[in-house]
Amino acid sequence: MLSPMPTDWHVQLKPNKVGPGEGWKNIMVKVGIFGATGYAGFELVDLLQKHDEVEVVFCTSESSAGMTLDEIYAQGPHWPLIKSADAPLDQVDAVFLCLPHAASAATAVRARAAGCRVIDLSADFRLKSLETYEEWYKVEHPRPEWLQEAVYGLTEHARDEVKEADIVACPGCYPTSVLIPLNPIVKAGGVKAGAHIIADSKTGVSGGGRKAKLLYHHVEVQDNMTPYGIGQSHRHWAEMSEKLAGWSNGNGAPELIFSPHLMAIPRGILSTIYVPLKDGWDAEKVRALYEDAYGDEPFVKVLPEGKLATVAHAVRSNRVAIGMTVAAGMLILTCAIDNLTKGSSGQAVQNFNLMYGFEETTALL
Ligand SMILES: NC(=O)c1ccc[n+]([C@@H]2O[C@H](COP(=O)([O-])OP(=O)(O)OC[C@H]3O[C@@H](n4cnc5c(N)ncnc54)[C@H](OP(=O)(O)O)[C@@H]3O)[C@@H](O)[C@H]2O)c1
């Protein structure tokens, strides 16, 4: 636990517009943040401070309840932390759940009982199949029927449903970096029948959360690059496979091979995805498809011919950068996102904006 910081110095850097007990303005939607001390939760705190139409009523932490956020993160606001059991759910319209799976679902049950809309960053509502959820997450789901009701918030492909949803399941970080680039070609039926798609992905260490695990220690990570959960053994494989199957319109979903790696940067994901193309699909046709799909998107940028996505295209932003190369009948997509923005909290705010009728880009540009 960090020792307490002086609590007034940061206010001079960034006035608290939406902090509990401070002089906020233009209040429209009251929200609570569960798990505000985690990497995703703190990113959300940072984003919501720029949102003039949000009032953050409470932030939770189990291990640091009684402290303030600026005691955990030096650059954080002086907001009190409370235990999730003490969260005044009757005082908020919506909650963001930045919690581990299982804890999220249990909190969602309480939040829905209090009439709150739920924006969940965990995996608890991402899958439609209960069997798949229980197989991969090894816990019983407290409300299996909500798996059907929840909307998978890959925003660019679910706007209408997100607007109406009471529970939005924000996609995983790797799935965001794989599914956004794959959606147009899979939906258009451009993948060779019976072919495998290979997604080779690399993430920065914040992808593993704030709790120390050996794999994420500086000594293990620095000057190293580590594959883990490769093939079809990572939980995100199940999430991606379910969505790809849904987009294939009964045409036989392409089988996915997914190989995640840990790289020595704090944040950012780069996925390189190999898609065998059906006859008749060439570079020109593929480019036209992607420019049509994403040309008007505020956050998705299809890079010009010859340009490949790099982590720097997207890091510390809600952007998705997509590069395209066609070689030997194979579409090679490169996609960069920031795992803590478009891969979690940024996409959560994007969905929140749609749910409450704000400009989708509010607090994100
Ligand atoms: N990190 C990413 O890039 C990323 C991307 C997409 C999705 N996600 C998902 O977002 C969620 C949060 O991830 P994270 O990386 O921010 O994790 P994290 O850094 O480990 O933070 C977890 C947060 O949840 C709180 N918490 C832990 N166990 C809890 C429990 N049983 N009950 C209530 N609160 C509890 C922690 O509070 P204290 O430790 O302060 O007690 C902390 O605030 C996870 O479901 C993760 O899979 C993360």
Order of helices and strands: HEHEHEEHEHHEHEHEHEHEEHEEEH
Biggest beta sheet attributes: 7 strands, parallel
Low-pLDDT windows of residues: 1-26
Structural class: alpha/beta
Quick overview:
This protein is an alpha/beta fold and 365 residues long. The chain contains twelve helices and 14 strands.
Report what the structure shows.
29% of the residues lie in helices and 21% in strands. With 365 residues, it is of the alpha/beta class. The model is unreliable at 1-26 (pLDDT under 50). It folds into two domains: 9-149, Rossmann fold, CATH 3.40.50.720; 174-339, Dihydrodipicolinate Reductase, domain 2, CATH 3.30.360. Strands 3-2-1-4-5-7-6 form a seven-stranded parallel β-sheet, with helices on both faces. It has a seven-stranded mixed β-sheet with strand order 9-10-8-11-14-13-12. The site of NADP nicotinamide-adenine-dinucleotide phosphate has 30 residues, from helix 2 and helix 12.
